Amino acid sequence: MILGNVNIIGNNEPVNVRVCNGKLADITPADSKSQASHLQLTFNDAIIFPGLINSHDHLDFNLFPQLGNKKYSNYTEWGNYIHKAYKNEIAEILQIPAPLRSEWGMYKNLLCGITTVVNHGEKPGLKNALITVFEESHCLHSVQFEKNWKIKLNNPLKKNLPVNIHVGEGDDLLSINEIDELIKYNLLKRKLVGIHGVSMSAKQAEKFEALVWCPGSNYFLLDKTAQVNRLEKHTKILFGTDSTLTGSWDIWEHLRLARKTGLLSDEALYCTLNQNAATIWQLNSGSIDEGKDADLVVAKNPVGKKDLDAFFELRPADILLVIHKGEIRLFDESILTRLYGIDMYGFSKVFIAGACKYVKGDLPALIKKIKAYRPDINFPVTIKEPVQV
Ligand SMILES: [Zn+2]
Prior knowledge:
Blueprint: E1 2-8, E2 15-20, E3 23-29, E4 40-50, E5 52-57, H1 75-85, H2 87-94, H3 98-110, E6 114-119, E7 132-134, E8 138-142, H4 149-153, E9 163-167, H5 173-184, E10 192-196, H6 202-205, E11 210-213, H7 215-222, H8 228-231, E12 236-239, H9 251-261, H10 266-272, H11 275-280, E13 296-300, H12 307-311, E14 319-324, E15 327-332, E16 347-352, E17 355-360, H13 363-373, E18 381-382
Parallel strand pairs: 1-4, 5-6, 6-7, 8-9, 9-10, 10-11, 11-12
Antiparallel strand pairs: 1-2, 2-3, 4-13, 13-14, 14-15, 15-17, 16-17, 16-18
Helix pairs in contact: 3-13
Bound molecules: zinc ion.
């Protein structure tokens, strides 16, 4: 497959990207003669970037609406509050079988151009996942909510796995102290990947391999976020959306919020989604280089924008193509006629903000199954074309 005449972010000249056996085979100038391929898609005014890596989500919690109606001091206050105030709402969503909830969580990510998601919690057991659901870490919930966390943290059988833990999610002493406690009891000096770190200091950050920044979730819960401008020199910053319990389904909204804080440069923010995450999770992806896994997104270049300005303007409706390990997982209707020769079996049609997309698998059937349990759940995609008024 050749993706022709696409602009790599940061490159001045358009290129052709050739994909072969699930890997990036070569990248050549768009005006050079490429090797013949069974499928050649030539684009016009399009950008290409590595499939995004979402380093924090709970796949099975993405049918929840945002729960909470005030600012909290920390995650325990929020957690205890929502279990009381929204007891029935939570029970109703949890009645939907977890595999259905997790499958939707996977689609939530794919529809935004995410090709790797780090799932926190129980293994979702998805059959034939369409993106990489990363599970090679040891998930502990948090210092306050994980029972026997000290014993689990010091389990020698798991010592080679990175520890993936919510930490410092608050704006009070409890949140500061729990980070120190976690560091103190990390007796085996395991690699720590902290999530949130709103109250994390530069000194504490040095003890972490990485911090997953989730500004959307932080502002919703705490009206405050991690001081990543001060932490980035001491640990690697990754990016996470968390679930829809605390934020939008759409990572692009999270990214625009992150950018607005001005805490990271555009380049540094971009790296949280690809190179930084690929390094920490040891993935052969995260850049457009020969030999890397072909996890790629092609999107319409927003009018009048270039490079990172274009990237951060994107919306799910602008995505033209998502490729995961060389396989097409999603494409825009505008390239349908150019895809002859591709087995269309197994794709289904949905609309995002009025734009028609074909996605692998039967997403309409999944939505119907979920709605059979809860007809009132709102999905960001529709099955039928929206009526123009
Ligand atoms: Zn979380």
